[in-house]
Amino acid sequence: MKNFLNFISNSNIKRFMLLLLLLFIYTFICAFSYVNAVSSDIQNSVFRLHVIANSDSDEDQNLKYIVRDKVLEYIHNISSNANSKEDVIDLAYQNMDNIQKIAEDTILENGYNYPVKINIGNFAFPTKTYGDISFPAGFYDALKIEIGEAKGKNWWCVMFPPLCFVDVTSGVVPDESKEVIKESLSDEEYKLLSENNNEINFKFKIIEMFQNIGIKLAQS
Predict the structure, then answer these.
(1) What residue segments make up the domains of the chain, in order of their start?
(2) Position 187 confidence tier, pLDDT thresholds 50, 70, 90
(3) Which of 123, 122, 112, 78 has its CA nearest to residue 98?
(4) DSSP code of 45?
(5) pTM of the shown model
(6) pLDDT (tens digit, 9 = 90+) per residue, 20-41?
(7) What span, in angstroms and rounded, lies between the C-alpha atoms of 7 and 4?
């Protein structure tokens, strides 16, 4: 009788463990599917700018910001009438030589002779907040500008929707920029970027966790 009770007990434990495992797998699959769908929509809706300094010295970091400002001024002028991410990417491709020259001339004017490398591609980005809008970590299309050895701290922003031109110190993104983001995303996705409550923060953290894992795997 005792052996039989032990057998029943062991069977129940095994069944319970199996159910836990199946529940974990189901939850993981659901979370992964959610993250994949939401992340793809968010990443496909923006085009970013990424500027990397030659080094972390104060001089090189300051030069990075000067180059950034000159490039942003030019991009703002040529893309002020752009209505989509694709429009801004096309303009960036068409004006890559001009952007390169602006960066190189700015570097020379400031007493340096660093080379400049410019690429348009899909790159890994960490989580970043612009005013009251936050973008989760992930792979985003971007214009990357590498100054010199490109071993210094980098700076990034969103060229479309036009958040590069937002004064982040004010903590508020203009309504026009928010409307552009809204039009590209579902209500759920927009809430993830713009709202701050326990449920939204939890979902954002899940996306952030999965995307950071993906970035590490891709870079290993």
Answers:
(1) 46-181
(2) confident
(3) 78
(4) T
(5) 0.73
(6) 666 666 566 665 565 556 666 7
(7) 5
